[in-house]
Amino acid sequence: MTAETVGFCVVAVVLIASSLGVVLAPNLFHAVLFLAVALVATGGVFLLLDAAFLFGVQLLLYAGGVVTVLVFAIMLTERIVGQRLSQTNRHIVNGALVSAAVFVALAGFLVRRPGGAALPAVPGDATVAIGTALVGRYAGPFELLAVLLVAALLGALYLARTED
Q1: SS3 string of 59-120?
Q2: CA nearest 11: which of 36, 51, 40, 32?
Q3: φ, ψ dihedrals at 86, nearest 5°
Q4: Could you give the CA distance from residue 38 to residue 24 in angstroms, rounded to a whole number?
Q5: Please, are residues 63 and 36 in contact by the beta-carbon 8 Å criterion?
Q6: 52 Cβ partners below 8 Å, 6+ apart?
């Protein structure tokens, strides 16, 4: 086994464990902390794939920004409600069945994939291609996503405000 394989196995175990923690944690704040670990582990996968730019974006935007917004939203809504927020998962069996079906489908797809197929050449640095795509072809959807996130933040602030 190479060091890269061992690193991927470690990151995969952390990612699976933290993802299960997000779904199964009864405390909403703990679920967000597990989400932060899962997002950092996803960044670790990007790092193992030699995509340092995506690793940085994953850490800054998702693990940093999104988790911070979620923590503030939980803290504000707990203060308004006056009690601890907890999440209950009444459909855990249905979710487990759907997850198992998706896993079996993906595993079957990967097993049937021809192993000798030539992979396309990977460019040395994909940062330029990603930047060109974001300000070129995908500039419109990228800006719409930014507007959607701002609207969601404003909605959360409206719901979290006190009645004066």
Answers
A1: HHHHHHHHHHHHHHHHHHHHHHHCCCCECCCCCHHHHHHHHHHHHHHHHHHHHHCCCCCCCC
A2: 40
A3: -130, 150
A4: 14
A5: yes
A6: 46
Q: Find out whether 54 and 45 touch, Cβ atoms under 8 Å.
A: no
* Residue with token string 């197929």: 117
Using DSSP's 3-state secondary structure scheme, residue 47 falls into helix
Find residue 86's DSSP bridge partners: 27
Compute and round to an integer the Cα radius of gyration of the chain. Answer: 20
Per-residue pLDDT of 42-101, as tens digits, reads 999 999 988 888 888 888 888 888 888 887 777 777 665 556 656 666 777 888 899 899
What span, in angstroms and rounded, lies between the C-alpha atoms of 131 and 134? 5
Task: Pick the closest to residue 87 from 22, 36, 158 (CA basis).
Answer: 22
Whether 106 and 98 have beta carbons less than 8 Å apart is answered as: no
Amino acid at 17: A
pTM exceeds cut of 0.85: no
Give the span between the Cα atoms of 87 and 27, in whole angstroms: 6
